[in-house]
Design a protein that fits this description.
With 392 residues, the protein is of the alpha/beta class. The protein has two domains: 243 residues, TIM Barrel (Alpha-Beta Barrel), CATH 3.20.20; 98 residues, 2-Layer Sandwich (Sulfite Reductase Hemoprotein, domain 1). 41% of the residues lie in helices and 18% in strands. Helix 5 packs across helix 6, helix 6 packs parallel to helix 7 and helix 10 packs parallel to helix 12. It is elongated and about 75 Å long. Bound molecules: iron/sulfur cluster. The site of iron/sulfur cluster (SF4) has 15 residues, from loops.
Length: 392
C-alpha cells in the first residue's frame, strides 16, 4: 500500500504542498520572462497540460518588472526563480508571486536573508531551497570529494537553518543530482532529517529519450517509498513535455489519474495485425482528445487480448481480419481492422460523455460500426476473458 511520509504543509498560492496534499506537478518556462506575452502563452500552455505550479526565471530587473502581469494573468501559482539577488527577491515579493526559489546561502549579507525572510513571511510566500549537484558549495565538494548525496543534504540543512533562524518555516526543499542513484539517496537522507515538503527532480536529465527514463526511475522510486510532495521533470525539450511526462509518472503509479492509460501488448508472432502502428495511432488520437481518465487497451491477438481488453474501460483484441471491441467489460462487436481506430475513438467519446453526465459510466449501448460484419455480444473469442500469460 502506498503510504506517504508525513511532511508539514505549505501553500504555493492556491496549491497545497506537503501534509498529505495531492502531489503537484511543476514546470518552468523557457521564455525570457520580460517577454510577457510569450511567457504568458507558455504559462497557459503548461497549465492546460496539467502543471499545477509554474516557475519563471528572474535573472534581471526587467524580468522582475514583468512579474505583476504574469502573476495576475497566469492562472496558476507563479514561482520566481531568484537564486541570490535580494533586490530581485524583494521585487518579486512586491509583485505578489506565489513562491520564491532562492538559496539564502547565496546571499552574502545576512541582513538580506533576514529582509527576504521577513517580507516573504508577512505575505505568506513560501521559499524553495534548491540544492543542486552542479552548483554545490566548493567547501562541501572538497569535504566529500564530489557532490555526494551526503554533501547535498548537508548543504540543504544549512540553507534551511539560515531561513529558520529568522522564524521562516514555509520552506520546501530539493536536492537534485543528475546521477539517479545519488538523487534517490539524497532525498532518502533528507527525508529523515526534515519534515519540510520535498520537491523531487533529477536535474539535467537530458533529452526526452534518456530524461524520461532517469526521471521515471528517480522520481518513481522515491514516490513509491512515500517520499516527495511535488515533482518537476527536467527535460531538454519544450516544457509541456515535462508536464506530460510528470503526469504519466503519477498516472503509471496510480497516484493521480487525470490522463488516459494506454495498455498495449508488445506484439509477438501471434499478432493478427500491426500492434505498433495501431497503438501509436490510438495514442496520437487520444492525446488530442479531451477525455476524462480512462484505461484503453490495444491487444494483438486472442491469447491475452480479450482479458486485458475486457478489464480496461475500452479495449480492442485483434482477431483474423477484424478485432473485438470491448467497453466496460462487455463485448461490443467485431470491427474490421481498418476501422478499429475509428471505432475505439467513437466508443471513447461515448464513454467520456457518459462519465461527464453521470460522474460514472455504465456499460452502454454498443457503438455501431458500419461494415463490421456480424456483431457478437457475449459470444467472443476462443478463450475470451482470460489470457494464457504467454508472450507478455
Ligand atoms: S500473445 Fe500477447 S504479445 Fe502476442 S499478440 Fe497476443 S496479446 Fe500481443
Amino acid at each position: 500500500m502506498y503510504k506517504r511520509r508525513q511532511t508539514r504543509q505549505i501553500h504555493v498560492g492556491s496549491v497545497a504542498v506537503g501534509g498529505g496534499a495531492p502531489i503537484s506537478i511543476q514546470s518552468m518556462t523557457t521564455t525570457k520572462t520580460d517577454d510577457v506575452d510569450a511567457t504568458l502563452i507558455q504559462v497557459h500552455e503548461l497549465a492546460t497540460q496539467g502543471a499545477d505550479i509554474v516557475r519563471v526565471a528572474v535573472p534581471h530587473e526587467g524580468d522582475a518588472r514583468a512579474l505583476p502581469t504574469i502573476v495576475a494573468e497566469g492562472g496558476v501559482p507563479i514561482i520566481a526563480d531568484i537564486h541570490f539577488s535580494v533586490r530581485l527577491a524583494m521585487m518579486a515579493i512586491e509583485a505578489g508571486v506565489h513562491g520564491l526559489r532562492l538559496n539564502p546561502g547565496n546571499m552574502r549579507n545576512p541582513q538580506h536573508v533576514k529582509d527576504v525572510a521577513v517580507a516573504a513571511k508577512e505575505r505568506g510566500i513560501p521559499i524553495r531551497i534548491g540544492v543542486n549537484a552542479g552548483s554545490l558549495d566548493k567547501t562541501l565538494v572538497a569535504k566529500y570529494g564530489r557532490p555526494t548525496a551526503e554533501a547535498l543534504v548537508e548543504s540543504a540543512l544549512h540553507e534551511i537553518s539560515l531561513l529558520e533562524e529568522h522564524g521562516f518555516t514555509d520552506i520546501k526543499v530539493s536536492v537534485k543530482h543528475q546521477n539517479v542513484m545519488e538523487m534517490i539517496n539524497a532525498y532518502r537522507l533528507l527525508s529523515e532529517k526534515t519534515d519540510a515538503p520535498l520537491h523531487l527532480g533529477v536535474t539535467e536529465a537530458g533529452t526526452p529519450k534518456q530524461g524520461s527514463i532517469k526521471s521515471a526511475i528517480g522520481i518513481g522510486t522515491l514516490l513509491a517509498e512515500g517520499i516527495g510532495d511535488t515533482i518537476r521533470v527536467s527535460l531538454t525539450a519544450e516544457p509541456v513535455e515535462e508536464v506530460k511526462l510528470a503526469k504519466q509518472i503519477l498516472n503509471a503509479m496510480g497516484i493521480r489519474q487525470d490522463t488516459f492509460d494506454l495498455v498495449a501488448c508488445p506484439s509477438c508472432g501471434r499478432a493478427e495485425l500491426d500492434v505498433f502502428e495501431l497503438a501509436q495511432k490510438v495514442e496520437a488520437a487520444i492525446e488530442k482528445m479531451d477525455l476524462p481518465p480512462m484505461q484503453i487497451a490495444v491487444m494483438g491477438c486472442e491469447v491475452n487480448g480479450p482479458g486485458e481488453a475486457r478489464d480496461a474501460d475500452i479495449g480492442i483484441a485483434a482477431g483474423p481480419g477484424r478485432g473485438l471491441l470491448f467497453s466496460k467489460g462487455k463485448q461490443i462487436g467485431w470491427v474490421p481492422h481498418d476501422q478499429l481506430v475509428d471505432a475505439l475513438l467513437k466508443e471513447a467519446e461515448r464513454v467520456a460523455a457518459e462519465i461527464r453526465s453521470t460522474g460514472d459510466v455504465a456499460t452502454g449501448s454498443p457503438t455501431v460500426v458500419k461494415g463490421a460484419g456480424r456483431r457478437l455480444l457475449d459470444v467472443g473469442f476462443r478463450g475470451a476473458g482470460g489470457g494464457t500469460g504467454q508472450a507478455n
